[in-house]
Amino acid sequence: MRREVTSAANVNNDSTSASPERAHLFIKGQCVIPYEDVNRDRVNVCVTSRTDCHARCNFYLELRLEMEKMTRVSTVNGRTMFCHLDAPANAISVCRDATQVVVAGRNIFKIYGLEEEGFVERLNLRVGRKPSLNFSCADVMWHQMDENLLATAATNGAVVTWNLARSCRNKQEQLFTEHKRTVNKVCFHPTEVNMLLSGSQDGFMKCFDLRKKESVSTFSGQSESVRDVQFSIKDYFTFAASFENGNVQLWDIRRPDRYERMFTAHTGPVFCCDWHPEDRGWLATGGRDKMVKVWDMSTNRVKEIYCVQTIASVARVKWRPERRYHLATCSMMVDHNIYVWDVRRPFIPFATFEEHKDVTTGIVWRNQHDPYYLLSGSKDSTLYQHMFKDASRPVDRANPEGLCFGLFGDLAFAAKESLMTGDVGRKTYPGGDRRYPIFFFKKPDVTEQFAQVSSALSVFESEAGSSVGMDWFINTAKSYLLSGKPFAELCEHNAQVAKKLNRPQESTTWTMLRIMFSEPANPSLSTNHNLNKSGNLPLVNSFSMKEMSAALNERNKENRQDNLHSLETNLNNNDENEETEGSEGQAEYLFGDAELDDDDLYSMEHDNQAEEPEYLLPQEAFPLRHEIMDHPSAPEPVQEKPESPHVSGSETESTCLTPMESINLISVSQLLFSPHLPPKFFCPIVKEMLCYYAEQGDVQMAVSVLIVLGDRIRKEIDELTQEHWYMSYIDLLQRFELWNVSNEVIKLSTCGAIMCLNQASTTLHINCSNCKRPMSNKGWICDRCHQCASVCAVCHHVVKGLFVWCQGCSHGGHLEHVMEWLKQSKHCPAGCGHLCEYT
Amino acid sequence: MIICTKNMDYRFGTQCQFVQNQVMVNSEKDRASLLCMKALANRGRLDSVSQQMASHPQYLESFLRTQHYILYMDGPLPLHYRHYIAIMAAARHHCRYLVSLHSAQFLRVDGDPLWLQGLEAAPPRLRHLDHINKVLAHQPWLTARSHIQALLKTGEQCWSLAELVQAVVLLAHCHSLCSFVFGSGSDSDSIPTPRVHHGTPPGYCLCDAANGNTALLPPPAGPTEKAPRRRSLDSSCEVAYLREQIQKSQEEIKERKADRLHSQTLSHADVEEEDEAMFSADPSRFVTDPEFGYQEFARREEDHFQVFRVQDYSWEDHGFSLVNRLYSDIGHLLDERFRNVASLPFPHSPDLKRAIWNYIHCIYGIRYDDYDYGEVNRLLERGLKLYIKAVACYPDSSKTPLCPLSWAHIKASEKVHVNLLVMEARLQAELLYALRAITQYMIA
Lengths: 839, 444
Known about the structure:
The complex is a heterodimer of chains A (839) and B (444).
Chain A (H helix, E strand, L loop, with lengths): L1 E3 L5 E2 L15 E2 L21 H20 L11 E4 L6 E4 L5 E5 L4 E6 L4 E6 L12 E6 L6 E6 L4 E5 L8 E5 L6 E6 L6 E6 L3 E6 L5 E6 L5 E6 L6 E6 L3 E6 L8 E4 L5 E6 L6 E6 L3 E6 L6 E7 L4 E6 L6 E6 L6 E5 L8 E3 L6 E8 L2 E9 L3 E6 L6 H4 L4 E4 L5 E6 H4 L34 E6 L10 H9 L7 H14 L3 H14 L5 H10 L4 H18 L2 H18 L5 H17 L3 H10 L35 H4 L1 H5 L4 H13 L11 H14 L2 H11 L1 H4 L4 H17 L3 H10 L3 H8 L43 E3 L6 E3 H10 L15
Helix pairs in contact in A: 5-6, 8-9, 8-10, 8-11, 8-14, 9-10, 15-16, 16-18, 18-19, 19-20
Chain B lengths: L12 H10 L8 H13 L4 H6 L3 H16 L6 H14 L3 H13 L15 H15 L6 H8 L8 H24 L1 H4 L13 H11 L21 H12 L4 H5 L2 H4 L35 H4 L7 E2 L5 H12 L3 H14 L6 H14 L2 E2 L6 H6 L2 H12 L18 H32 L1
Parallel strand pairs in B: 1-2
Helix pairs in contact in B: 1-2, 2-4, 2-11, 4-17, 5-6, 5-7, 5-9, 7-9, 8-21, 9-21, 16-17, 16-21, 17-21, 18-20, 18-21
InterPro entries (chain A): WD40/YVTN_repeat-like_dom_sf (IPR015943), WD40_repeat_CS (IPR019775), WD40_repeat_dom_sf (IPR036322), WD40_rpt (IPR001680), WDR24 (IPR037590)
Keywords (chain A): Metal-binding, Repeat, WD repeat, Zinc, Zinc-finger
Family (chain A): Belongs to the WD repeat WDR24 family.
């Protein structure tokens, strides 16, 4: 059955980004005709298919190559262009009128002119035969007020200023050697001509007045190395500093004694930060944890308002001019591209520049008011000017389709609307179905320049009872018995369950398991069970099977029929107290099975019997009490005699049998001369079977059998596989909110890792009711005030066991007492007047 | 507070949990003993390395966590490969202690005993690793893109990048651990006793640990007064002191400096320990080209080996991101180790610490732009420098006589501290070279 959910739901094409775990769909507002920057000479067409997209990509690639060859006449001067540098660049900066760019690195310090045709080298500042380490630059900044003034941060810890107006070759003006370690960043004040700020590896920031020979103030971040410092563009006195330990601090330039505020922005170093050019309080930070975060500082508490997850550690971040939500990033390692993000669309980059062959080390927008040109320097020794219109648009290559399976086998599918039209057999989605409560429409944002796609969402519901539905899973999980009864009974029960749920294969499997692993010819033992419990049938049944197998091999058909017949009557006689339906079904089944499989199973059994004349009493026959333990992974406990008193007393007890039963059993055991195989014999087959089920996706069966068989099979399957099965099953159970079953499985599991699940976060911290301080040792007496902390409000005695308390008035006491009390009274037993409820 | 094994996942977790669930730890003081006990329960015995480190519990914790992660937790290499690589790495420095330790563990994780006969018996894939092992161990500056390329070259025996990174981390870890073992003198005094298989620790160890280290039982005797077979945490230091006394005579030999050191042959390597043939396998059988050793970097500087500038490729900025990308979470673990060793309280000035660190890096050709190397000579006495160099570059007890610390007034815990610095600086140096080569490979 298929119903359409909405006719025009728009799926945000972010949802189809590369991240597979983001399987849920984002449904958003109506279609917006995409538009792009005014100078983009590219027609926006909705991508209709992948091939179309590829074709267009190729087209643009060719176009770009062509453009690199020849200068295009355009209304805006400039083009995508690059030049080779002599050495890797560490940082770049432009002068205010965007006509020159400075490139700095370990072995390079040059100024290039930006012309229409390309970059032109203007000046080499790296002079001298053997330049000192003062020329080895980690960072460079061109003053935005004075076009002759530059500052560099040297790797040896020096801060150097350069004056291009100097007449001699060496333009170095001032040298500050106050930092002890590498200086990572220098920053001029945006409006104050003589103020320079530096941040160093030694953890200090220093503010220099260029008219003086030394720093005017020193700021100690007290938290490791400073990675970036940035003056606020709007607030005259404020600057931000980012640190290697993940902190960001805000400082007032007038108060060097302590920071104004500090917050942890990232895990690991914060490599960069950048103030929003327009929004006063916005700060973007990028860190080694591969995140770009945008913080709003204007409020009392610093708030993270946007977060973009990139694929590599973020080395630089720069807001795009005139585009409120755009920022450019480049990464420190591995990834060489420059990305421009729309922070509101954090899953897929708005645009990428893919020219560099090694990591990009410096990015800067060419002009403070021009969003179309980006300059970048790289370790591959090139300097690029990127034109925005030449950027590649990952959105265009994304497939705006999404697909997700629901818990109950439903399938949701979103695709472009154009692809979905003309589909027959769709019904409109009737509102108000509680299974799909969350449709909301995001208002289209006109400022968002993202290509938007209108998609339709369809939901395919699984039909009730179909194979896709999971009802069988829930029912099975609820009704299977995994412990608490003898092995044979568990198998029997589970076989019935499977059968009722119309799963014959599983049912057969359980029966087979019972036959394989119940120990057969020990009448005394079986009678014990007969006496104990009502479930005597299974063992008798298994006798009959064994017996039949012997018969198959040794006797003619007539004999066998006789035997079977007699057995059937025995069964019926035995079964007076049983449910007739179950027992009859079982009997029929037995016949059918025996006749169908004259199989190797039984013949093998026969072959083997001479070798194992002795029959040892296996432990498995006893109720599996020992499995339920706190530490099941501890060495296997040896079955102790006192726990199985019936064995020792079996001879006397067997005399209590009704004559008929005992005769039958004895005759059966005489017929078989111990025709059994050691259960071990079946282990490889069972192991294979479990793996088969697990691979079929029925991990439920695998785990259930594993638990029920317990030790019989556990050693055969390696621990990791078991753990894997358990985890999958528990996960499934929890998805279906079958908490009880899941807990039972955890409890019964024998894997250490699974057992731990039950022991995690089991500590409950409580405070003493008298002195209000945390209780450390015992739950009922306080070490500090030596008072009994938890007194029952009903009987006024100390509660040492289960304590129940009201969340409203926090009075309480013994569970039973409170229960009783609240049956009679609505009010709190402590007399506080609160109307407590017990549910 | 109940300590659960949330952070450390143990392969043989059962006993461990059992012990821990009984243990209530109230104060930081017990942290070291708890860690030792964890290690004890984990491996069945407390190796002398952990004992030495126990004077710095915080560091020990991160060290054990890293080691456990590399050897047992998620990672592309199969377990027996990991131990074999560890054997190969330790054999480069003739560290009998680590070779036998990992040989035993190699067998326990179902490694083929044949491989232990020598490198020739190992699969070719592991043999291919020999070259980078050799280079990293002695002259890491030779590590080049071509080595990486050769290993990753597609073919039947090729390595994947993720596997290679794990192998490199393992190699660097073991090489540097050799330095620590040598420096702390734990190599020859405790050849690990062969263990019962299936990871069952000898019973008495567990009991002792539980009695001596927990706060639950009030033991009348302190841990030091326990049975002599169990060593108290600092007794090994006394042993080291004794050795220092004994070998004072060899001091003069030592003074004649490094070139003499590696010219000595492995004379007494074959003499001892006949009975543990399998476990204390002769390291030299895992080594090719035994003559290849450390050479002064400084002398070769004029040739063509560029100085490695930390400002161009640092652990924090570059190494971390790369290694964490290719072998998830290891970056954080290693980062924690480096941070912990950097934050250990050092009684002398932080300058001395930085001098030691930078000196070790300088020995390996790694330079800091922002450091005045005159400081090294000013702050480090000649004896200490010799000691550091011997531990960092020639941690080979078969060639180098166990050098007495002529920096004599140093306290035992400070010696451990210096050894830790050597180990971590060396680890970082090797990692930086290897990771830079991998980066270069990835860019090309």
